Amino acid sequence: MTNNNNRHEVRLALLLGLFSTLGPFTIDMYLPAFPEMAEQFNTTPSLIQFSLTACLLGLGVGQLVTGALSDGYGRRNPLLIFMAVYVASSLACAFSPNIGLLIVFRFMQGFAASAGIVISRAIARDLYSGKDLTKFFSLLLLVSNLGPLTAPVAGSGVLSFTTWIGVFITLALLGTYLFIMTKWRLQETLPSERRSPTNFGHQLRAYNLLLRDRQFLGYMLAQGIMIAGVFAYVSGTPFIYQNIYGASPTVFALLFGSNGISLIIGSQIVGRMSHRVSERTFLHFGLWLALVASAAVIIVAVVNGPLFTLVIPLFFFVAAIGITSTAAFPLAMEGQARMAGSAAALLGVVPFLLGAVVAPLVGIAGEDTAVPLGVILLCASAAAILAYFLLVKSQQGSSQNAANESK
């Protein structure tokens, strides 16, 4: 029975992980085409980067909608609807006649892709809690983190025989496959008696309750700010690697993908050792590792160090994201069984909204310097540490003091 349960758990993690990869593929797969798209649309790199910003905004806002819908209508039906919208918007991106419409359709594409991210995590919370949730979430991340690892490589492969239009057609095909998987393989995990009212006022109250929970807010901000730093990395490295260091699209994809390995390493360390080392200990370690790595990125950027000296600290920074996100998610979701969709939505929306703000800032000083990337990563690491210690640690300290006084 145990073996059967393990096989079922792995199959479920594979399926949910596929839905989670839709976000990374939507974000990353067209990155190697940035220079080509800027030339074809006769526009600036900043406007091409703004298409990424639009996608991130769609992913962020969409999670608030899909999280609330999944708490009210279940997980399966909203996922079916949004997968259909994803296919349509991907095809619209492929045939956009100008950069303005591409930006609009990228927002719609990100909005639809958000369902795969937030609902897959809500399903995980429906089925697991505590250490079991940490273990399963790390398994889910093992699959979903393959998205950042493989998406640029896949994009580069598509670009080797077609244009950027082929990238968006490929994404439409991926969305079609996930629609079929939702229709025939995914079972409903939220019974009707556990569903929340679907009126707008109730959803606002649910989000208000979550945002007034200091510990939830602290975990949400610590995770969200850190991941926002990754979006700066995602937005900046196509130009830094290719324009500053002269890397080809294929070399860029390999370098970008190699850093994706660090996401997997970070998340799997937490999942494998969660029964021996607490999630809070891992969260502390990940936050401080990110701070040190981002400081190293600034130093390399200022002295114009060779490419490998930039790739190494970025590898450790992304590993820190794998550690902090895997540790923070179960800590934040504990006690949120009746609002799992809304809680997962907030945990997902903050990184994308913050990422949409910081992504265009990477190119603010032009295409010939990596200093803005280092500054953004360092600020993100420091802000995440500050949010955690002000909101979570201070609350834990107050609770401990109150308990001591009552004895």
Description:
With 407 residues, the protein is mainly α. Helices cover 83% and strands 0% of the residues. It has a single domain, classed as Growth Hormone, Chain: A. It is built from 15 helices and no strands. The protein starts with a helix and ends with a helix. It is found in: Cell membrane. One of its GO terms (cellular component) is plasma membrane.
Task: Set out the fold topology.
Blueprint: H1 2-28, H2 34-40, H3 45-73, H4 76-94, H5 99-127, H6 130-144, H7 146-159, H8 164-185, H9 200-212, H10 214-244, H11 249-273, H12 279-302, H13 307-333, H14 340-358, H15 371-406
Helix pairs in contact: 1-5, 1-6, 1-7, 1-8, 2-3, 3-4, 3-5, 3-14, 4-5, 4-8, 5-14, 6-11, 6-13, 7-11, 10-13, 10-14, 10-15, 11-13, 12-13, 12-15
Summary?
The chain has 407 residues and is an all-alpha fold. 83% of the residues lie in helices and 0% in strands.
Which labels suit this protein?
Growth Hormone, Chain: A; globular; 407 residues; mainly alpha; disordered C terminus; 15 helices
Q: pLDDT average, as an integer?
A: 83
Order of helices and strands: HHHHHHHHHHHHHHH
Here the CATH topology equals Growth Hormone, Chain: A
Number of strands: 0
Strand content: under 5%
Count of spatially separate domains: 1
Shape: globular
Amino- and carboxy-terminal Cα gap = 46 Å
Could you describe the largest sheet, including whether it forms a barrel? none
Q: Using the CA coordinates, give the radius of gyration.
A: 20 Å
How would you name the CATH homologous superfamily? MFS general substrate transporter like domains
Derived from helix and strand composition plus strand pairing, the structural class reads: mainly alpha
CATH class membership: Mainly Alpha
GO biological process, one term: xenobiotic detoxification by transmembrane export across the plasma membrane
Pfam families: MFS_1 (PF07690)
Transmembrane segments: 12-34, 46-67, 79-97, 161-180, 216-241, 247-270, 282-304, 310-332, 344-365, 371-391
Subcellular location: Cell membrane
